Structure prediction request, 189 residues.
Amino acid sequence: MTLAEVDVSAWAELEGAAADPQSAFRYLNLCSVDAYGRPQARMVVLRRVDVARRVLEIHTDVRSPKWQEISADPRVTLLGFGPQPKVQLRLQGSAELNGPASECAAEAWSLLPQSTRSTYMGGPPGDDIGERPANEAVIADADGRAFFGVLIFRAETLDWFQLCHADNRRAVFAYDHLGALTSSRWVNP
Prediction:
């Protein structure tokens, strides 16, 4: 594959993953830095991709530690791995947070099924629920919308890495603020 084909293929994988719950790239590792300068990583669900703008959409609870971390420092990394054909995608960029009162969050909320909306009910992420299972916890908000936020990630770089039986391959891509490809190169794995 050429560099151009790798770039197109990587973004096609991400775009497809947003619509396919079975895709390996549907679940990405989001890495941020906490108030103590420690890296924090957690899995998130990829909800939407705008290939032309190099933008990914992720939903989150605004009471979560990641919301606070990204509020303080919007620089984040997203990491995913697809077992076939053994490709790792590492995207670095910045995140924009859209809280419950935003138009972005309102639109995303309106498209969610009730089963997904229910994940935003109850207490803040990480709070102790005591002896009761989570499904018996007191519901803090009638529909959870007050705690729903949208994280818009804008990729600045993509580091593509493919494990091969005989020869690993790696390429690095950079994008401008509008999503246009500004550079691409093969690098040593």
The chain has a mean pLDDT of 93. The radius of gyration is 18 Å. The helical segments are 3-19, 65-72, 103-110, 114-117. The chain has four helices and eight strands.
